[in-house]
Amino acid sequence: MKTGSVLVTGGSGFLAGHCILALLAAGHRVRTTLRSPQREAGLRAALASAGIDPGARLDIVTADLTADAGWAEAVAGCRHVLHVASPLSAAAPKHEDELIRPAREGTLRVLRAAHAAGVERVVLTSSFAAIGYGKPLSRPYAESDWTDPSAPGLAAYPKSKTLAERAAWEFVDGEGTSLELVVINPVGIFGPLLGPDMSASILLVKSMLEGRLAALPRLMFGVVDVRDVADLHLRAMTDPAAAGERFIATAGDFLTMQEIAQALRDRLGPAADKVSTRVLPDWLVRLVARFSAAARQAATPELGRRKNASSAKARAMLGWEPRPAAEALAATGESLIRLGIVPGR
Ligand code: NAP
Hints:
By secondary structure, the protein is an alpha/beta fold. It has a single domain (about 5-200, about 220-255, about 310-325), classed as 3-Layer(aba) Sandwich (Rossmann fold), CATH 3.40.50.720. It contains twelve helices and eleven strands. Strand 5, helix 5 (about 155-175) and strand 6 form a beta-alpha-beta unit. NADP nicotinamide-adenine-dinucleotide phosphate (NAP) binds near residues 15 and 125. NADP nicotinamide-adenine-dinucleotide phosphate binds near residues 35, 88, 189 and 201.
C-alpha cells in the first residue's frame, strides 16, 4: 500500500530544499535523495532554521543520477516524485557530457524507477533553457517552443536540459504511458538561500554585491522566486489539469543585467554600494572572450538579444501568483548578508 510520501530528488539543492519545506508545511511526508549521506545533518539544520523541524517526516536515501543504486528504494511507496536534481554549474564544463549525461540519463533513471514502483505523477524541473535558446523569436516564448539542441554555439547547460526534457516526454509517450508527467520550466531562480550552498543563479547576485562584475554584458534573464517555483511544483503535483503539460515559471518580463543590478541597488541600499550598473559593449565582450573563459560564457549567440516569456498558462490553469522579480532579487541579497556570505555594507 502506498504511504503517499513525496520523493524530491537532490535535497541538498537550492530549489529542492524549498520544495521540501513547502511539502512539509503542507503536511506531506517527504523522502529525498542525496549524493552524499554526510549532507543530511546540514539539510535538516537548514530546514529547521527556516522554521520546520522535519523529524521523522523526512527520510533520506543515497542515490546519484549517474548510477542505478538507490533509485528503487527512493521511489518505493511514493505517490508523487518531484525530479529536481540536475547538474548546474557556474563554470563551463570541460566536456558537455558532464552535464548532459546526469541530466538525461538521470531523468530516465528516475522515470523508469517511478514507473516500475507505480508512482502516479512525476513533476520534472526542466528550465526555460529547454524553451528559449538557440532560436531568436520576435514574440515572447511560450510552452510550445523548444530550444534546438543542435543550434550552433548552444552552451552545455541548455543542451542538457533540452535533451533531458525531450527524453522524459518520449518515455511517457512510449514505455511509461501509465505515468503522468508535468514539467516546470523556470527562468533564473532567485530568492532566499536556506544554507551556505549556492546555485549558479545565486552566484550572479553574490558577484554583483561583491563588486566583482565591474561592467555587465547585454544579456537578458527572467527572474522568479524559489518559493514561488516550489509552490508551482506542488500545484503541478496535485492539480488534475496539469497532467501532460509544461509550465513556464517567470515572475514577469525579462530583465537586462543592468535592470537586475539596479533592482539590487534600489532594494538593498548601502549593502549594494558595490553593485555596478555599467554596461559592457558587445564588441568588447567578444574581444575579451578570446582570452577569458568567463567572458566566453557571455559571448554566446544570446548576447544583445532581447527576449521575453510569459507565465500566463501557469497563472490561468493553476492559479499561480508569483511575487515580483525585485522582491526575489532582494531576498537573495538579504539572505547572502544574513548568512555572512557577503558583508552587510
Ligand atoms: P543546485 O542548488 O545546484 O541543485 C542541483 C542539485 O542537483 C543538487 O542537489 C545536486 O547535488 C544535484 N545533482 C547534481 N548532479 C547530480 C548527480 N550526478 N546525482 C545526483 N544529484 C545531482 O541548483 P538549483 O537551482 O536548485 O536547480 C534545481 C533544478 O532547477 C535543476 O534541475 C536546474 O536545472 C533547474 N533550474 C534552475 C534554475 C536556476 O536559476 N537555479 C533555473 C531553471 C531551472 P549536490 O548538492 O550533491 O551537488
